[in-house]
Amino acid sequence: MQIGVDTQRAVENRRVFVIDSDDVVSAGLQFMLADEMETHVFASSAEALAKARSWPPELAIVGAALLEQEGAAVISKLREALPQLRILVVCFDAEDALVKEALALGAASTLLRPLKLENVRRKVDAQLGRRTALEIPVVVR
User: Looking at the whole model, is its pTM more than 0.70?
Assistant: First the structure.
């Protein structure tokens, strides 16, 4: 089922890697993104880098669970192997020390949990250089 899918974006065939050892987060992100882009899920950075040799991604979404397992240095490893790669970090708190270290090592931004479809797609689109809708909340008193 496609929810709010822009057909123009669906045929662009942009490649995104979700790299996280948390199966629930990975499956959720794959579900949210698969309609508009080619989305691949990996449980480790080694698996992702092996696949990236033949299918380089434009964006990697790295989960906090992976950062805890492999350390923030995984960001450097990804950036070294794929210099043009944009990286988002999925986390509960952007002020977490490990997340701050990942940002300092080259991650572009964070995706805060709980994940919401429109927030995930908006953030991913921005990282891929796609135009995103500007939303200004209107407060009526």
Answer: yes
